[in-house]
Each structure stands twice: as C-alpha cells, then as structure tokens.
What does this fold into?
Amino acid sequence: MACFDDDRNPILVFPCPHSHAMCISCFESYCLHQLNSRQFVEHESVGYTLSCPGTDLNCRSAYITDIHHFGIMGRDNYERYKQFGAEECLLRWVGPLPRY
It folds into this structure.
C-alpha cells in the first residue's frame, strides 16, 4: 500500500501492474495536492485524470478511468476539478486565448 498503513479500509487500487493501493484518506490528499498544483493530466481517452503515483513507467501510464473517484475531494474541489478539466480541454482544442 502506498500510504504504508495496512489497517485502513477501504482502499483504492490503481490499475498498474503492481496494483499499488492507498487508503481513501491518502487518496484524497493525493488528489487535492495534484489539483492544487494543477498536476492532473488530460488523457485523450480518459479525460482529466491522475496516474498511479508510483515511479515505474508502467505506473505513470496507469490512469484512473472513472472520474467520479475524484468526488472524494468534496463538492467545491470536485467543481474546481471539472473547471480545470474544461480549461485544459479548451486549451488543447483552441490553443491559448489572447489577453485583452
């Protein structure tokens, strides 16, 4: 388990070959940290998501495919997540918008 706390339930298991896992509390902290530092990635088939935090190349390409998992961050942060995702999508399709 990524958080090294074997007594926590439930857990989230990442879709990487190592099946890395972390408790829900650590997953929430991971998501919030990544959201606040704008480290989510726009994946063409998954959308705005995160990968396994492991350092192995296979981990870094193992993305969370159900975006509803990010609701763990709470209503306001989930709304920020959706807003950031929309912004990234717009930037990808239109490019940077000019400043006026």
